[in-house]
Amino acid sequence: xxxxxxxxxxSKAATTGLIFEEPVVFELGSPGRKAxxxxxxxxxxxxxxxxxxxxEIREPVKELPELSELDVVRHFTRLSQWNxxxxxxxxxxxxxxxxxxxxxxxxxxRLPGFAGHHPVSPDDDSQGSLQLIFELQECLKEISGMDHAxxxxxxxxxxxxxGMLMIQAYHxxxxxxxxxxxxxDSAHGTNPAxxxxxxYKSVQIPSNSEGLIDIEKLEAAMDEETAAIMLTNPNxxxxxxxxxxxxxxxxxxxxxxxxxxxxxxxxxxxxxxxGDMGIDVLHINLHKTFSTPxxxxxxxxxxxxxxxxxxxYLPKPVIEKKGHKYFLNYDRPDxxxxxxxxxxxxxxxxxxxxxxxxxxxxxxxxAAQSAVLNANYIRAxxxxxxxxxxxxxxxxxxxxxxxxxxxxxxxxxKELIDHGFHPPTVYFPLIVKGAxxxxxxxxxxxxxxxxxxxxxxxxxxxxHENPESSQGAPRLxxxxxxxxxxxxxxxxxxxxAPSG
Length: 500
Ligand SMILES: *Cc1c(COP(=O)(O)O)cnc(C)c1O
Hints:
Number of strands: 14
Helix content: 25-40%
Largest sheet: 7 strands, mixed
Number of helices: 13
Strand content: 5-15%
CATH superfamily of the largest domain: Type I PLP-dependent aspartate aminotransferase-like (Major domain)
Oligomer: single chain
Order of helices and strands: HEEHHHHEHEHEHEHEEEEEHEHEEHH
Bound molecules: pyridoxal-5'-phosphate
Shape: globular
CATH topology of the largest domain: Aspartate Aminotransferase, domain 2
C-alpha cells in the first residue's frame, strides 16, 4: 500500500481489473530502505578519499530511489503486465513473423554449460558451442540451398549490410565496385539503407499491377554499373516472385548479383530453396522464421548465407572443422572483416538450433504450410469486408487497406487494442495506401483467428455506423492514443524530480 500512498496519481486511477496503476520507480520507496541486509562491519571503516585521488571519486548520485527487493520485483512485474507480448495474445504483425517462442528453447538455452560459457574462452574449451554454431550453419545451408552461412550478424539489417559488403568486395576484386543497386518499390526500408551504407545509389523498380517486380522496367534499369538487385521473396505483399528465374537471369547477364531479403522465409522453408533460384546472398531472421524472441528488445540474429563465389569475403572469423575439432579461422585476408566482437548472439543461435532440431525437416515444412493456410484463412474470411489491393495468390500474409471503410487504418489498429489484439503492420508496404498487413504465423489456433476476424468485422461495422467513436480508441490500455507527431518530435525520455 506504501506504493499507492506515495503515488500522486493513485487517487485518480487505481486499477484496471488486476492490473495496477504504477508510478515511476523514482516515486517509490522511502529513505534508508534497501534490498539487502548484511552483518555489521567487523573491520575498521576507511574514508574513500584516503584510498583514491579525488578526481576518481564519483559525486554521490542524488535522487536514486531506495527500495526493498519486493518493491523492485513488484514494480517491474506490474510494468511488464502493461505490455503486450506473444505469451499473452495474438500478434499479427505482417513481415515480422511474430511466432510463439517455444519454452523448450528457453530450457535448453539455460543449460549451464551454454549459459555460463564465457565469450572469450579459447576454442579448446568451447567445442560444444562451436559445434552448435557449425551445425546451425549446416541446417541453414540445407534449408536455404546456399553454400555457406555466417551467423555473426546481430539483425536482419546487419545481415543485409554484411551481404552488400561482400557483393561490393566481389565487384571490387573484379576491377569495378559498380555504382547502383536496384530495389523494388515494395522493399523494406533497411534494404536501401544497407545499399546506401555501402556507398551505392538506390534505383527504384516499380511494381506491376500484380504487385510483382516489373520485368520490362527491370531489364531497362539493369546495366553494367549495377552491382546487385535487392529483392524480397516472397515479397512484402506476401506474394511469390513467380518470374524469379527470369529476374536473376537478367541481373546475372549484366554481371550483377542477386541479394534476397529472406525475412519472409517462413512462407517457403522446406518447400523451395533460395539457392536454386539464382540467389547469391540471402539473409535470414532467426527472430522471425526460427522462433527466437523478437520485439521488446530481445536480441536479434540475422545470419547471412552466400554462394561459393563470395566465400573469400565472408566476415571473419569463420568456423571450421578439422577432424573432430572446431576452431575459429581468422586467417582470411579477403574477408570484409569482423561484424561484432563475439560470434553472434549465441543464446539466439542456440534457441534457433533447438527449434530446427525439434521440428525436423517434416516439421519445418508443416510450419510453412500452416502459416500459409492461416493467412489464407484470414484473407478468405475478411475479403468481403476489406478491400484487397492485389488479388493474386499470397502466401503467409495478406495485405488489405482501408478503402471504402468508415474509419482509417490507424483507427483499426487502435480499436484492435481494445479487443485485446496487437495491431497488424500498418501503412507498409508503402505501395499500398492505408495498408493493413496481417501475418498470423503457424502458431495460432483457428479459435484465435476466428476471434481476430470477428473483431475486425465488428470494428468495420462500427466504423461505418459511428466513425467518430473510433477516434477515441484505444480506451482500455494505460496509454490511450498519443499525439504521434508530438511524441516523435518532442519525446520525453528522461524522468525529472518534481520541483519544490
Ligand atoms: C524485419 C525485416 C527486415 C529487417 O530485419 P531486422 O532483423 O529487423 O533488422 C528486413 N526486411 C524485411 C522484409 C523485414 O521484414
